[in-house]
């Protein structure tokens, strides 16, 4: 698979999308490197994975779950006792916006 998938037009398009300037001297090297990368990914298609089970997670561990425990929270009236002013079960504060 030594075919050139990336040509000069695609390099120009990639450079435009990446908003970078690529000189004419750099294009052959970039073309070769990008084609090597694409060819390397093509080799992955040759790997036989028929007998391999897909992994859901790399680690074969499961998460431990804790039991839900109800926590007694403070009562609204107990909380509002500490407020300087309260109205309709809410804190009352001075008006900030005119």
Pick out its properties.
about 100 residues, about 5% strand, two-stranded antiparallel sheet, 3 helices, 2 strands, mainly alpha
The side-by-side strand order for the widest beta sheet comes to 1-2
Order of helices and strands: HHHEE
What spatial form do the alpha-carbon principal axes imply?
A: elongated
β-sheet strand percentage: under 5%
CA(first)-CA(last) distance = 73 Å
Total DSSP helices:
3
**Total E-strand runs:** 2
Task: Characterize the biggest β-sheet.
Answer: 2 strands, antiparallel
Indicate the radius of gyration in whole angstroms: 32 Å
Low-confidence stretches: none
Fraction of residues in helix = 25-40%
Roughly what is the average pLDDT, rounded to an integer? Answer: 87
Q: Report the structural category.
A: mainly alpha
Describe, in plain words, how this protein is organized in 3D:
This protein has a two-stranded antiparallel sheet with strand order 1-2. 0% of the residues are buried. The chain is elongated and about 80 Å long. It has helices at residues 8-18, 27-44, 76-80; strands spanning 86-87, 90-91. Strand 1 (86-87) and strand 2 (90-91) form a beta hairpin. 35% of the residues lie in helices and 4% in strands. It has 98 residues and is mainly alpha-helical. It has a domain at 8-46. It is built from three helices and two strands; from the N terminus they run H-H-H-E-E.
Sequence-ordered SSE layout with sheet pairings:
Elements: H1 8-18, H2 27-44, H3 76-80, E1 86-87, E2 90-91
């Amino acid at each position: 698979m030594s075919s050139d998938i990336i040509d000069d037009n695609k390099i120009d398009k990639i450079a435009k999308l990446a908003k970078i300037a690529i000189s004419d001297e750099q294009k052959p090297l970039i073309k070769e490197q990008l084609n090597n990368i694409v060819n390397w990914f093509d080799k992955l298609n040759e790997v036989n994975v028929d007998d391999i089970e897909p992994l859901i997670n790399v680690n074969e561990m499961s998460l431990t779950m804790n039991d839900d425990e109800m926590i007694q929270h403070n009562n609204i009236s107990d909380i509002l006792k500490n407020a300087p002013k309260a109205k309709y079960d809410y804190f009352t504060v001075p008006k900030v916006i005119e």
